[in-house]
Queue: 2 jobs
Job 1
Amino acid sequence: MAVTDRVRPATPSRQRRPQRPPEAVRRLAFSQRLSKWDVKLSPYLYISPFFVLFALTGLFPLLYTAWVSLHDWDFIGGQGTFTGLENYQFVLAQPFFWNALGNTFSIFVLSSVPQVVLALTIAAALDANLRARTFWRMGVLVPFVVAPVAVGLIFNNLYADQFGLVNELLKSVGLDPVRWHSDTLASHFAIATMVNFRWTGYNALIFLAAMQAIPRDLYEAATIDGAGRLRQFLSITVPMLRPTIIFVVITATIGGLQIFDEARVFDQYGLGGADRQWQTLTMYIWELGWGQRNFGRASAVAWLLFLLIVLISLANFLITRRIAHQGGRK
Amino acid sequence: MRTRARTTAFSAAAACLTLTLTGCGAGSASEAAGVDGETGTEDVTLTVATFNEFGYEELFEEYESENPNVTIEHKKAATSNEARDNLTTRLAAGSGLSDVEAIEVDWLPELMEYPDQFADLTDPDVEGRWLDWKTEAATTAEGRLIGYGTDSGPEAVCYRADLFEEAGLPSEREEVAELLSGDWENYFSVGRDFVAQSEDVAWYDSAGATYQGMINQVQNAYEEEDGTVIAAENPEVKAVYEQVLAASTEDDLSAHLGQWSDDWAAGFQSDAFATMLCPGWMLGIIEGNAAGVEGWDIANVFPGGGGNWGGSYLTVPTQGEHQAEAKKLADWLTAPEQQIKAFTAKGNFPSQVEALESEELLSQTNPFFRDAPSGEIFAERAQAVEITPFKGPKYFPINDAMQQALTRVDVDRTDDAASSWEKFVTAVNAL
């Protein structure tokens, strides 16, 4: 703004001597304008790669999926007739859809809740004065580096119904073997352990980072007041971590609603069990799109899942805002 | 097996959709030459996509030295499922397929829906090269041949001679063949005798695998030729379903193992069952799972007549730029002489009439199966196949639903036959 203001006074003089100054003024104005654009546009240019990429790989497929979901659409044959909301109607009338939704939530709850609690505990332990701190901190991240399918193979060996390690152990102490692949809740539990195995360490590190930002004098004051370690953890650490906990809960929700790999490799067919005991929504999308090659219906489920995630994230966001107002600035 | 790495379905769906859009209409330029173009002049690089073991490595070298203008690049997928995902995704994308793509008979029907995607390989030179049923399965109603047959999966019965002996049944392979020849009821009834005489050993591995052998003898199990789905109403399907489940649960002939599961693989080591239906390619799998177990043998018999399970084809996608050269290569690879070499290398049982009569094949024996004359047995089993079951575009999902129905009763035991059938009907109606 200041730059343009300085140019402007030159304009009246142009009326008196129209021959030479205009060019000088224009040249000046052009370079000034360039720098003005530079100031105004460059920041957008710098952040544009993300948005361009997002538009190409995120937004476009999203909208295109919506377009597909309104058609009869064959996997290979491609676009068919326009059917409006018929795919949505069909899918919502399917018991398999609701079953998958229920499974998704059940696995999500079974994995997220213990995951957050465990991660908090591990982070608190890592926050203490340990020998070889970096070693332990990196150690909790190791399961995260292992490919989910490899995790699946190992856990499948543990959870095999007749000859799996867990059931062998149960039998050796005289307990009844668990029917991991036929009992719904047992299968959810088994899958949730795979998810927890993978994500607990990752979340623990996030908590740890936040814990280290908590002012140490709070703990000193508490110690002087005679608060024990547990009391300090519950009354200082957890409340101070509230925003981080909410962040972790939101990411865990989004991830949890999209559980696929672990559930898919849980048996040899990858369809979520003979009675769809552990078929999640993403697996249902897979079944519709790839098994039945009906991309219209698969896209409809994908969009329903998207809307669901948006809804839950919105709810999360509102709760976050309330808690931030309550607790954040006290 | 069925496990494989994958990103989430959501992002995969997104990626595929993007590919679909960009890929629309591609390929028209490359179709110009077609399969009837000139060969042997230009230098070309042909890509060949196979899976598991086709036994082609040495054959490729031989072909390259005979055809100096051709360089072959081999893309080998670890499992047929991986190959199927790759093929269907790239078909949907409209580009990226190899010049020669190997496909398995199980996913042939869904590809037959899009015959335009594959070059018509009909040629007077190859007429009569394969067993009739092999060619028929790859021929469209309009007479387009979309693939050249490679191997096939004629089925015999593999059995544990030692366990037979313990149960007081005849154990020599000729006697067992005699004992088991007849219909399925006979196979189950011998099973009842066996189970009564032996402790803790089941007659067969799983209801699903046995059902598969039975349903492959039904001409139109799930669909009419015009694509009408009849699976839920077809009395033949229900009869087979009820028969195999009665044998599996009421008579307890099944070891209640889901085929390909970890438990199933472990069952080979713990003497869980005494017989299983085995196509030629299953021998390697049994040998691997049952390593160290002695007593496996092959009986030259299959209940209810002949049966085929599996086998592959070579196709030439119309996306390719060198279709004529690709066809020539596929033609050469599937000629009897070459398939016999592949059989010697990896045990893939040929589907070519001439190969079935070759001395080299007939004299083959398998040391793991007590030196059974596997070449001769499977050659006879291949001749015994009479029915080519019709498999339409919905065969795959319907059969998946059926296998789930059987698993619910046989393995999971969460349902009885009647309630599981109801769920099967629901699943079929949802297709």
Job 2
Amino acid sequence: MSMKKRLLAVAAVSALTVATAVPALAFENEFHGLFRVRGIIDNFDNGLVGKTTPSVSSPTSNYIEQRARLMYIAKANDDLKLITHFEFDSRWGDNSYNSNGTTRNNGGGIGADQTNLETKNIYLDFNIPSTPLNVKLGIQGFDDGYKGIIFNNDAAGLVAKAKMGFGSLGGAYFRFDDATTGSAPATNSYLGVPSATTVAGSTIQNSTPGYLTRDLVNLNAKVNVTKNFKVGADYYLLYSDVLRQTQDRTAINMFGVNAEALAGPVTIDGFVIYQAGKLGDTLFPGNAQKVSSLAANVGAKAKLGPGTLRANALYISGNRDNNTSTRNDFQTINERSTDTPGHAFYAGEMQLMLRNKYNMTSDRAVVMDLNNASQGLLGGYLGYDLAINKFFVNSNVGFGAIARDTTGTHKGDYLGTEINTEIGYKLYDNLTTSVQAAYMVLGDYYKPTSGSWPVNPYTTKLQVNYAF
Amino acid sequence: MKKVAVMVMAAFMMSAAMPAFAQMTKEEKDQCLLASKGCMGEVSSIQQKMRKLNAEIKKGKKVYSAEELKKLQDKLKEAEAILDKLNTNN
């Protein structure tokens, strides 16, 4: 065989090799998901969402609910991927065939066959070539850097982050609401601020998208001072002019500083957030209330014995009187419907006092919205996590009080003490079963002027959790 | 020229046949049908992915450059965030 023919043969073989190798360059498909079933017996939860006010009459509920989440990630390469995340929730026996006029969070009734697919996230995650910049664009979850007390939910927006030698620089923009003609579910719900200031029923007249909006803007910087000490600074702006046809606009500036330090076996972290700005309110139609409020946290985690000890303290400022020109209660972000927070403090690991990370369709708490009807919160939370082979036990105790008694009518500020535990077993690497139980001893805040005390809340749950 | 054609054909047949060889196990039993193991297109669960990443990170600088280790650590954080996102109510 001549040299020319050999070269031709080598070229042809090389071409075929490349051609057959092409499929290896195609998309990487990632599938992940969750399936959770919880059987619940308690006296404070009725399978719905919202604040629970302890009462003398607290009937026992028993029900079973389930959640499935499916996540598909279409990964073109390390620099480009599309993340999609879907959810299906139902309570056993609730409804089927859309026959109760609702769709989501249904489908556990006889017959099933419910239109109940919820889209949690659809966003593009990509790196900009030749820059350190990563961009997430679309409907996505957000880590606010403040343990979720500002914003810990899904929304449509753009998040950009650049890794730098000293740490990172970032920014985010979310459009929470773009209101067109209709009746606001409750006046201040479109402001994103607590329902304590709500006067329901205003009607919005608007046919121009982008004219009446609620938006969140964030600028952030993180500095790695040393390998074991990191500091972050943030600026947030919560802006809403959705209700400007009837009241002044809301523009709340938030200035936050957070830090994390590792000292031997102990990790300490915390933050301070100061809010300043103006709050639109129907009580002050042409002149918004001034906002000056504060939130702060200190947390610690340490290896202790065979397990891990956790501690957290949280302060959310409250307000004495909402009818004055200045507000000192920390303005939390809510969804449109009242009493559905767009924030949470899961680090407390409470099951009754605060929202719990495992909550699904039933999502209730004594302090549901951390603004706590303008009363704020002083909370202390201690926990211990223990894992022995396939068994695990997570136990917590929490103490809560209001920061300000808005009405001045309560016998005390102390909300109560919660003790809870979760005892579980790993059946497989990704399948766990656990029993959860919590009991809250109510404090003087609930002491009646006469008659019986409200019943202490409790909950017991049996949970099966498969995540893959 | 005939030799060239034969070589090209052989190379093509071998390259096309390779994936099939790769899928075959040493055992005669089809473990995919029998035990849902080693199936074509098998993907890692999030826990498997985290375990694999941890194992590679442990190999350290003997195997990976500092930049590659950082990349693996970032991917581990990303996997942890996915698991957290799946498990946490929002």
